[in-house]
């Protein structure tokens, strides 16, 4: 059915971490993401995958209304750029896409459940033909925002169905891992999940905890995340790709000094960017503040705008852009905008890299004056 309202979004979660993609979608009328059954037998290559997915999604809404989150097997910068390039070649626009790891997608799925589900540890058990991938999720509710940690999956070998003994092997793993931990919920999924094969272990799993059976859980989590792109989440996924710093620029508003936020922590570092215009009050200096989400002391660093033309106070206007080129490396670009016809732009630009792990506290207290 075609959606008529142009403002309605069509959300998609695309799991590219396996041999073939798993896809879920959600329209404004749907309460939960649903699996999108697709045949990729004749599609070879990532661009062909994305072309097939886009064609199927357009049955449910306008192409322009699609917001998609893509789970990648390789979260290197090169891998990210290649998948985005392939998706754009297939017809997606880059601004329609966000990318994430499988672990991050699981965190979004768990945090979209009611809070009684994640009061304690949550485990995801993904059943394969010979092994089970067991992933533990834990939420620190004492922080603001809450911090979600998803551990690297454990591999539980239960053997082939024809060999027998799978129920006993899984039961042993459950006793070893779950006996001394508080676990509020377990989610079961996978290609080789047959509850009849696991009668004893199923009884142990369900003892004093909630157990759910589902499919395409990572893709569903990605689909949920696609709907949150413009909202500030009450939780922060903590992973290798997570930006751990709020990036701000010191400014004055009236008589008060404050820090104007350029980039919020919590997003993926490769998606982090922000900009603003500032008016220099005195010296051609900018002061940046990098506030860690892990409770560490903020890092402060300065940037001097060499050769900026001398002008009266409050008549130098500059554009400041910030983005990250690595998880701990912030790039800042500044352009002189001048001040109307009285003081035209000099066309000067400045660039600076801040390697946050190497910053020292002796740069504190430079005392720059800016007005946002």
Would you kindly provide a written description of the structure presented here, covering whatever features stand out?
The chain is an alpha+beta fold and 372 residues long. The radius of gyration is 25 Å and the shape is elongated. The relative contact order is 0.11. Helix content is 18%, strand content 36%. The chain has 3 domains: 91 residues, Nucleotidyltransferase, domain 5, CATH 3.30.420; 117 residues, Nucleotidyltransferase, domain 5 (2-Layer Sandwich), CATH 3.30.420.10; 127 residues, Substrate Binding Domain Of DNAk, Chain A, domain 1, CATH 2.60.34. The protein is built from 6 helices and 21 strands. A hairpin with a 2-residue loop joins strand 18 and strand 19. Strands 6, 7, 8, 9, 10, 11 and 12 form a 7-stranded mixed beta sheet that branches. The two termini are 48 Å apart. Helix 1 crosses helix 2, helix 3 crosses helix 6 and helix 4 runs parallel beside helix 5.
Salient structural properties:
Nucleotidyltransferase, domain 5, alpha+beta, seven-stranded mixed sheet, 6 helices, Substrate Binding Domain Of DNAk, Chain A, domain 1, 372 residues, 21 strands, five-stranded mixed sheet, 3 domains, elongated, disordered C terminus, 18% helix
């Amino acid at each position: 059915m075609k959606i008529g309202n142009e403002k309605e979004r069509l959300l998609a979660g695309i799991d590219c971490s396996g041999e073939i993609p798993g896809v879920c979608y959600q329209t404004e009328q749907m309460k939960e993401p649903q699996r999108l059954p697709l045949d990729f037998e004749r599609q070879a290559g990532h661009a062909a995958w994305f072309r097939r997915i886009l064609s199927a999604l357009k049955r449910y809404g306008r192409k322009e209304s699609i917001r998609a989150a893509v789970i990648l097997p390789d979260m290197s910068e090169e891998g990210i750029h290649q998948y985005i390039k392939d998706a754009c070649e297939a017809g997606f626009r880059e601004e329609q896409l966000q990318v994430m790891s499988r672990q991050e997608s699981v965190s979004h799925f768990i945090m979209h459940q009611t809070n009684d589900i994640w009061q304690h540890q949550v485990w995801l058990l993904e059943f394969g033909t010979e092994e089970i991938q067991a992933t533990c999720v834990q939420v620190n509710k004492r922080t603001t925002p809450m911090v979600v940690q998803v551990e690297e999956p454990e591999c539980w070998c239960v053997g082939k169905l024809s060999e027998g003994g799978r129920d006993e092997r899984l039961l042993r793993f459950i006793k070893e891992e779950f006996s001394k931990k508080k676990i509020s919920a377990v989610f079961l999924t996978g290609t080789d999940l047959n509850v009849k094969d696991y009668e004893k272990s199923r009884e142990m799993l369900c003892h004093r905890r909630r157990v759910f059976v589902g499919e395409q859980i990572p893709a569903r989590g990605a689909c949920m995340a696609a709907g949150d792109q413009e909202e500030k989440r009450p939780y922060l996924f903590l992973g290798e790709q997570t930006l751990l710093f709020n990036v701000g620029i010191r400014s004055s508003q009236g008589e008060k000094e404050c820090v104007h936020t350029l980039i919020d922590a919590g997003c993926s570092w490769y998606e982090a960017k922000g900009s603003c215009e500032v008016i220099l009050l005195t010296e051609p200096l900018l002061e940046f503040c990098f506030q860690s989400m892990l409770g560490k002391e903020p890092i402060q660093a300065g940037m001097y705008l060499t050769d900026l033309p001398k002008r009266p106070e409050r008549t130098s206007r500059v554009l400041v852009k910030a983005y990250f080129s690595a998880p701990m490396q912030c790039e800042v670009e500044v352009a002189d905008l001048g001040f109307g016809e009285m003081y035209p732009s000099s066309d000067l630009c400045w660039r600076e890299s801040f390697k946050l792990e190497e910053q020292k506290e002796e740069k504190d207290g430079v005392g720059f004056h800016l007005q946002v």
